[in-house]
Design brief:
This protein is an alpha+beta fold and 304 residues long. The chain contains seven helices and 18 strands.
Length: 304
């Protein structure tokens, strides 16, 4: 008997998942997509299977703006296990070396300032970055080590929350592209004992906080009780990740031409920058950019 193809729903919005331990970001996305029965979905930057916490998932029209969440700053709480280095820089790797930990709280805190602000990081071999088209982690698994260029990242916050040797719990706020594993490894190297990430929890991604997130168990319970549509209450608006952007509302006349791809003039357009745009009835219709001649040009439009 032929299998009946599942007809998916047009679901639009952002869902903030508290990603569970041991699941890849894509596995988590596909599970939530199945529960919602959504047509189109994407996540906004991977969390390692070892990591938990804030993972914004975009559905439908919201996927058009996922890039802006990829570029957003992040915040984490991580447990650094001092005295042990691993092949991957985290608890999933094989142990490379173990050393005695003689570092006290004061010595640890004394090293933190050197890692705050703008710093240089060499990306780890076990990462999704590519070399000649091959992800570095695949080369690493084959025993290869290739040269990686250091990259500039910004650590806005690095604080010691708790210390019970050999475990140190750190709070980190950082720019996109920061590797917490590398940060912990570099800190361990400076302390002279080595270190790796024993646990990692993302507490913020762009404007989204952990207290806005929903667990997979909560979603599964809602689905069991009310089906696909019961999960819609967990969805944030399509432009939820852009709410810190300036907002401009167009007239009915300007809305018509703007939605047909034409730059328009509006009395309150700023001199430059990207904007969220609403139509004359207050509905989000996309994002625009101010041109050199002062008009507002459409960059990404919402399909009505």
């Amino acid at each position: 008997m032929a299998q009946v193809k599942r007809i998916r729903r047009a679901v639009n919005g952002v869902l903030i998942l508290d990603k569970p331990l041991g699941m890849s970001s894509n596995q988590a996305l596909q599970k939530v997509r199945w529960l919602l029965n959504a047509e189109k979905a994407g996540h906004t930057g991977s969390l390692d299977p070892l990591a938990t916490g804030v993972l914004p998932l975009c559905f439908g029209e919201a996927t058009k703006f996922s890039q802006y969440l990829l570029d957003a700053d992040k915040a984490y709480e991580t447990v650094a296990l001092l005295g042990t280095t691993t092949t991957t820089g985290d608890a999933e790797g094989e142990v490379l070396e173990q050393r005695e930990v003689t570092v006290g709280r004061e010595a640890l805190e004394a090293q933190l300032p050197r890692f705050r602000g703008d710093i240089e990081q060499v990306p780890p071999m076990y990462s999704a970055l590519k070399k000649d088209g091959q992800p570095l982690y695949k080369l690493a698994r084959a025993g290869e080590v290739v040269e990686r260029e250091a990259r500039s990242v910004t650590i806005a916050r690095l604080e010691l929350l708790a210390f019970e040797s050999p475990r140190a719990t750190l709070a980190v706020s950082c720019s996109k592209g920061t590797y917490i594993r590398t940060l912990v490894e570099d800190l361990g190297r400076e302390l002279g004992c080595g270190a790796h990430v024993a646990a990692l929890r993302r507490t913020q991604a762009g404007p989204f906080q952990l207290n806005q997130s929903v667990t997979l168990e909560e979603l599964e319970k809602a689905h069991a009780e009310g089906g696909n549509e019961a999960l819609d209450r967990f969805l944030l608006p399509v432009d939820a990740g852009l709410e810190h952007w300036p907002l401009l509302q167009l007239s009915e006349h300007s809305t018509y031409y703007w939605l047909h791809g034409q730059p328009v003039r509006a009395p309150e357009v700023p001199k430059f920058g990207m904007l969220r745009v609403q139509d004359h009835e207050g509905r989000f219709i996309g994002i625009g950019e101010v041109t050199e001649d002062g008009r507002l040009a459409p960059r990404r439009l919402i399909r009505s």
